[in-house]
Fold:
Amino acid sequence: MSGARSRGPVAVTRRDLLKFGAAGVAGLTGASVLELARGSSVLGANDARPNPEPSSPHTGMSHEGMGVVGATVPDDRYDPRVFLTHFDYGRLESLPGGGTRRSWEIVAIDREIEIAPGVFFPAWTYNGQVPGPTLRCTEGDLLRVDFINAGSHPHTIHFHGQHPPEMDGFEPIVRPGERFVYEFEAKPFGMHLYHCHTPPLKRHLHKGLYGVFIVDPPEGRPPANEMVMVMNAFDTNFDGENEVYAVNTVAFCYNHIPIDIPVRQPCRLYVANFTEFDLINSFHLHAAMFRVLRTGTTLESGELTDTLMMCQGERHILEFELEHPGLHMFHAHQSEFAELGWMGFFRGLERMA
Amino acid sequence: MNRWGWGLLPVVLLAGLVVMFKVTDPTRPFRAAFPPVEDLTIERVSFPELGKVAVRVVNGGPEPVTVAQVLVDDAFWTFSADPGPTVARLRSATFSLDYPWVEGEPHVIALLTSTGLTFEHEVAVATLSPAANSRYLATFAALGAYAGIVPVLLGLLWYPFLRRVGRQWVRFYLCFTVGLLTFLAVDAAEHVLEAALGVPEGFQGVGLALLGVLGAVVVLRAIGGSGRRRRSERGVPESPLPVAYLVAVGIGLHNFGEGLAIGSAYALGEIALGAFLVIGFMLHNTTEGLAIVAPVARSRPRLRHFAFMGLTAGVPTVIGAWAGGFSFSPTLATFLLALGLGAILQVVGQVARLVTTDRGQHADAPAPSLFSPLNAAGLALGAVVMYATALAVTG
Structure:
């Protein structure tokens, strides 16, 4: 990973629209293109937690030679260290009859992304990033997601959770250049997901159209250092098997630059499994144990463990504290996935810099 | 315009056409949409020392290929690239890794390119690769001698026997030789095509094989033809000795291929297979000695000729074992094996001619047929004996 921290706007810029124009925004009028270009940045304003800054940019946690060579090129759309702690709360409006409405604009874009140093993948993205932005709201909010398909293939957004079937996103299929507005009430509280539901599903998912959708309980959760980890993998040669595994897309990204967290302070990890082709994935934490809030639909956990198995589409909230300072490894307990990129470190610090 | 002008005109126009194609580039509309076709060939994976792996690759595709990452047994592993991770067309590169490989176990190496394609190579049994030091040179020389030189020389000892059989039995053994060589030709063709498949696409394995076959035939025919002309100018009767030498050369080139097989079996860790091959080739190659002496059964060559012919046929086994053990390039192997095939094809014709022109003292007697009952039996037996002794090689 590069040491430079970039936090460019996540939504489409005008330059990109011009770039992708030929591919399928023909259906959009010039006015809406400009509107899109203006109504962009939602990233940054709602960043709840400090981002872990690497103390040295090239810690290079190569484990006995295992690992990748080189560094990824800085990407103005996506940095896994920024993604880790960034929650997109949308545009807020108070409704006349009380309550809140949150709005997002999500644009499907074809984009090449770097998933390991020097390895490029022709992705389909929400807002130019894989995973898509982490959408966050509170139970009972009225949600409005304006979806524009600027990609080359038909797409949708299917949300997990409770909502009217016509807002479920398995239909209508949104053709290139078309848009669709999803509107529903956020419930129940928990950790949910969204992803494209256009057939062939396998390809639409594995190409990168997925993200995390968090519905907070009305009373909120106790304060903690919150992080999002999406387990994903890429079949770079399209043979039905993954070549590169990761959390948050870039292989070994938190290996090369560990995530700094203060010791003896609560941490909350939102973990989702979007790995295609492999039936299960898992999360394993070294030198500490975590409490599991399954699907995040409860406030209390009955389970303390250090290894959690997750099926495709499964997601849980994990809560823990690091007792000791130093490097705490985390990875899939499928050793193969770990050594193919799904591995990283928390660095417990007595005092945050 | 003079003659040369006319001769060069199409070439000059062709150069112009190439330049125009490059400048206007009619393929440009496709280039943006599709990733380039990548074609890397892993030529050799070697284990120079414990904990070290070296992977030699050749780019046989139309565009340069960048190897972004290297995987060993489904794990990313750090590496260094010499001269660099980007391999130009028809160029090679070596990737070196510190990997704790396990003696006697299989390992899979995969190269992941910048576009996400993977190129895999499986090592069936990992073992320390031979280094070119005197100990290994001597070992491989001994293996080659066991498999090639000694058996061929043993086979030459059939000469006194052949001198004591009747004329028709000499023809029988010549036919036996033709059958034997035909079997070797088919066997060689199989090995040539097998090696050609491992050649990077840009080097056109099959085309290269054809060059080798034709090259050997043309060169051997030219040599044989000029020898015959010189003798007939000097009024010397045609001697069968050159044919015997040709047989020795053809078998020598063939044995080079056998040496390659032995050497690379050891280098690739198939030690048991290597020992098995040596014993098989011993049986196989002794019969080849008979093929060399059959053409000269009724002349009396000097002893040194036997020694030369034996070494011509046998020593290439040692050279092949060295080449196979230390650096095995499928491209070079294809060409050399094809040379062997061409030589054998040429020799088959020469020996067959010895049979059909053998009219004895009666110049007006009908030419003997390759397919008289006895001769046909010789042909068949030659092939059958080769088949049977080859069973010892292939198991």
Summary: DSSP finds six helices and 20 strands in chain A. The interface with chain B takes residues 62, 64-70, 116-121, 234, 236-237, 243-244, 251-252, 336, 339-341 of chain A (CB under 8 Å). The mean pLDDT of chain A is 85. Residues 95 and 306 of chain A are 43 Å apart (CA to CA).
